[in-house]
Structures are given as structure tokens and as C-alpha cells.
Amino acid sequence: MRLRTLAVPLVVAGVVATMAPPVAAGAADAGPALSVDATDVRHAISPHVYGMNFASPELAEDLRLPVHRWGGNATTRYNFRNDTTNRASDWYFENIPNDNPAPENLPDGSETDRFVEQNLETGTETVLTLPMLGWVAKERARACGFSVEKYGPQQSTDVWAPDCGNGLTPEGEEITGTDPADTSVAVGPEYVTDWIEHLQSRYGSAAEGGVEFYNLDNEPDLWHHTHRDVRPEGLGYDELRDRTYAYGAAVKAADPDAQTLGPVGWGLNSIFYSGLDQDVCSETNCWSNPPDKAAHGGQDLGPWYLDEMRRYEEEHGTRVLDYFDIHIYPQQSGVFNQEPGSAETQELRLRSTRQLWDPTYVDESWIGQPVRFIPRMRDLVDAHYPGTKLAITEYNWGAHGHINGALAQADVLGIFGREGLDMAALWTAPAADAPVAHAFRMYRNYDGRGGAFGDTSLAATSADQERLAVYAARREADGALTLMVVNKSGEDLTSPVSLTGAAAGTAEVYRYSPADLTGIVREADQPVTGSGFTATFPADSITHLVLPQGGEEPDTEAPTAPGTPVSGTVGADSAELSWPAASDNRGVTGYDVHRVAADGTLTRVGGGTATSHTVTGLEPDTPYTFAVTARDAAGNVSPPSPPLAVRTTGGTGPATCRVAYRVASDWSSGFTGEVRITHTGTAPLDGWELGWDFPAGQRVTQGWSANWSQQGTHVTATALDWNRRLAPGASVTIGFNGSRGAQNPPPTAFTLNGGTCAA
After folding, report:
1. In sequence order, which residues have a C-beta less than 8 Å from that of residue 60 and are 6 or more positions away?
2. Does this model's pTM top 0.90?
3. How many angstroms from the chain centroid is the CA of residue 414?
4. 389 contacts 322 by C-beta, under 8 angstroms
5. Is residue 388 a contact partner of residue 381, using CB atoms and an 8 Å limit?
6. Distance between CA atoms of residues 637 and 633, nearest Å
7. What is the tens place of the pLDDT at every residue in 713-749?
């Protein structure tokens, strides 16, 4: 039995402030150690990861919603001229006019006009879905894709429109041979041009504050299912590419500053298979050799699509794809449901967020293999179309009305920021008082006055992220260090939190938990020393700690500049640097090393608390200029040090290596492999290609941290830009998922650029 404490609530600015004593000693279990390094700056957190689909104006204003998407199956056949959608397989393939107070004024005042206007009022950026299918609702009137009168009796009909059926015979067979003109009229890219011109006439261009983002339709790889009354066949590789070219180019011609998102696939399979293969293979079970993929050299759809988008830009000088956008819905049984489910389902929901990032997590669904969704997308973009951003414009971890859903949502938002996702939008927005809405408030408005989680991601680790997840960020506006801790264990946990590069002080504590599901509670402040603190995190809670930096009066005085750097060993791809400390170093918490461009622009390439650093990833036989800045606990940055010019050495060494191959996880028909390559040559290596032969018919199905291919038994893994250079003695780890038969023996011989590797 746990000791309970009494607390008196005090409502301040919409936040319940509880002056509660700490949990009594011995009442909580020992939790995993947490660690935050405020000197290890990872990247900016895009505010667009906190987006939603179809949020109320009140919720959007409360959350200062950064981005708001108008999407879903109904948008694929939306006609802005008559303000009518076709609800597709979601609702009897019906055309249904949107509620409109003045239809005589259309296209002015349509649902999408009002959607944009709501966003302008709440300071939110808009994502609109553009029809790319080629058909839109023909008129402002109800119409049926599968008329009972025309196509015969059906398994189910709309009780409010009995002539509209679900497209299945009473025996459950799909009705075919329908006429698209029953509901729709054909359109092409000119429709997109007209719509964007209409939007610009009312709200200006993207650069002028109008619509900035356009989805290139919605889940086109499922059109043969969701819109089968007008599109019964699957969408193949080539047609997806050609439609993206045509409609993406139309967007850029109409509004060059607008951003496009595609291919807007439905999930993980959208990276592997086209709609044509998903259509054909669902009937014939041809997944081992899908015909559309085979016709395109066996390359998965995702990398092929990105290659084709890059080729278009190289040939035409116009980027028609700005975001690589794939939806994700957890496939584990019961997780996506809005009911929280059993205790087992709730535990599964909280575990399943690992599919977004963790290469060791084998998805507990029909997928049955590691997903690592965001790093997978990042690897594809880096290898096939660098500079493309990442988006997940639909996702949903279920249980919006339950604390379990709020815990999962808080974890997901932390993962999005840590993993460097560029945009996300929850499908769909919760009620304003739902627990999942409070999970968003913990990041966007924890104190009722606009208090937000930081916008620069910092290194944060947990000894057991599955029980006690931690995320950290610096808030640039005031330098505050912000920590989000999600207790998914179901038990009160007392954990040490070590801090590096943070000032001692007092952290504000905000918490959402089953103790009060109506709102976020302002708890008693947490004392913090220069090295950290120990705190109890209640079961099923989300805790936001805010540690101001610099005292009551903001510290705005920058440290002095460090001394002139000097070089140590300079190789083909690295340079050792050291420098004298800043002369006024009392408040200095760390240093940052920058590459200096010809125009004086500084690009951070590393740093830490020491007065030395080795810069890696350099080009052989290339001149570089570096400078160093100092920073203090308040986030103030010194002027740069005097510059240092160095030149890397040239040449590449012989391609010899040592390989460590292991099976990281194994299941009935597949496995995850990990390969660690150590360069054992005597000179730096610029570019590598590892090869081996599988001894028992194993096949690589997809991989990461390299470009992977397989011909027969021979596997080839080629370096990516970010890991192509290996200094003597340096190592790189790559991985893959594979299929296997009854046996799974490891390969015994490896080559690197033709040279022999020791296994």
C-alpha cells in the first residue's frame, strides 16, 4: 500500500497549482537514471510537429496550434467550386455537400475558405489537400457511387439515403463496372491552378501569409479501395510519379513559395509497394515478387519515388516535392482504438511508440519486424533526395479520452522533436478537454499563459526509456532548460536526474496525471544543484520541469571570445583543434566549433565543455577555416575566436577491414542483421562498398545507414554521404532486415572495395 498525501488546489490562470509535500520516502520504487546534457545541442525542433487535423478554433487558439491540416479520404474528390466532397468508402461513396450558410456565393465562403480563415485568426499555418485522382464531385447535390437502383441490391445501404450502397453484393462480392460520371467530373492539374488562384485572391500567396502547404492528395496507394467506384485499379510507380510531376509543377507555377508534401502514403507498406502491387498482391499473394516493383528493378517504391523527384529537379530546375510524407497508424491489435482497451492493450500502446525510432523493437503486429519509422524515412531522403523534409500528416495512437492515450501522445511528441521530424498532424484533433489535448498542452501551453517546451533539442537519455521516457530542450526565448518526463511504468518511480551544462536553481514543475484529469497541475518547485536532482515521478504521469537560467534578472552579457585555436593532427577527413579558454570563463558552460565560410557565415561542426575538439567528416586535400565561440548558462554566446586555417591531407588508403556480423533479433521468417565495419588500412578511406554472399538463401528486405542491394546470394552495402569517410581504425555500423528459411547461418567472407576483410 502506498502512502497518500493531501493537497489543497489553487487555480491560477487556468492551471491548478497544488502546494503538495513530496512523496514520502520509501513510497516509490527506484526508477531508471535520467541524464540530460545541455551542452549537447542536437537540432532545432520544428514547431510543425505539434500539428492536428480538424481542430476546433478554441483548441487551436489555446495550443497556439502551429499547423492545421485539411485532409482525409473525403478531400480526394473535393470540388471547391460547389463545396462538395465524396466520402468514399468511409460513407457509402456518397457526394455530400458541405454545410454552407451562403452557397450562392461559391466558390467564396466554401468550407476550405473558412478553414483557412480560422487558421489566420489563430495564427496557424494551413495544409490543404489537393485532389490528384482526376475526379471531383460533379455538383452540389447528393449522389451515389453504387446506386442500388442502377447496380442492384447491396450488403449495406445508407439509412438516410437508401439508394446509396456500400459497393458489395449481398454475398459480399465487390460490384464492378461503375460509371465515374455517377458522382464525379474529370479534372486535371488546371483544377489545382484555379483553386490556388482563388485562394491567393482572398488570402494572398504563401509568402504573403496565405496557404503555405499543399498535400498532393491523400493515400493514393489506397485509391483502388477508398475510391474504387471511380478508380478500381491500383496506382503504379510510373503513374504516381507522373501525377506528382504534373500537380506538383502546377502548385509551383501558381505559387512558387508554397510547399508540397507527397506521396502521402497510408503507412509502412507505402514505402515498399505501389498501389498497383498492393491491389494485385492482396488478391494473389505475390508479395515476394510484386510485378510493379519487379518492373522497376526490384527497387522499393519510396527510394524510387525520391530518385524520380530528384531527377525532375535536376532536369527542370524546380523542386516539386518539399516533404516526404507517409502516414503511420500503429498496427498492433487494439492500439489505434479510441477505447483504451485491457491492461495488456494499454501496455502495448505505450510500448508501440518505439516503432517510431527503435531499431531493436520488433513490431508486435502483422509487420513482425523492426520499423524505425522516422530514421528509415531520414535514411531514404539522405540517400535519394537530400534536402527533402519529413512529414507524418496523419497518425493516431488511440485512447484520446484516457490517460493511457495521453501518455502515448506525450511520448510521441517527444520522439518527433528528438528525432528531427519536420511536420506531423494528429488524426483527428481531440476534444478540448480530452486527456490527449492536455498532452499537447504540456508541450504548447503548460501554464495557461503560453509556456512551451523548448525549441532546441538537447541530449537526454533514460536507463529504461520504455518505463521512464525523457526529452529535453532549450527554450531560446529565455534560455530556460525544459525537461519532459513520461512515466509509462504504472508505478511511482524515484529517479536521479543528472544535468550537464545547467545552472543550479529552482525548477518549476507542471504535471498531468490521473490525480486530476481535468487539467495540468502546478506542483511544488524542485530544487536543482549544478549536477542535477532526484525526483519522484508518479505512475501514469507526464511531468514538465522548467529550469530558468540566469536568475530573476536575465543575464544578457556574453562571455569573452576564446583564444586563437591551434591545430593538432590533421588527416584526410579530420582535424584536431584546441584553444585557450575564454578569459572571462566564470559563467562559461561550453564551447562550439564552427566552420567559417568565405562570406564569414558560421556553421557549427561540434563542441562540448572541453577546450579541444576533433572535427570529422572533412574532404581530403581541402582547405578549411574554423573558429570557436563560448556560451554561458544563460545561453549567451561570445564573439568568435580569431580564425584558424587548415588543409586536410589527400589520398585514400587500401580497402582492408575487419567485420563483426551479428543477428540482433530473429523471428519465424525473418531477422535483423547488424554489421560493424572497422577500417584497418593505413590511410583514410573516402567511400566504401561492402560485399558478402549469404550461405542459406537469406535476402535483405530493407536496410539503413547504407545503400543496400542484392543479386542472387550476393549482398552489396554502399556508403551514404554522411558515413562514406573512414579514418584508419574508424568504424561504422550498418543494419538491415532480412528474410530467411529454416536456417540462418552467418556469412563467412567479406570484401571492402574489393579488398579482403577479416571476419
Report:
1. 52, 68, 118, 119, 122, 124
2. no
3. 10
4. yes
5. yes
6. 10
7. 999 999 887 788 888 888 899 999 999 988 999 998 9
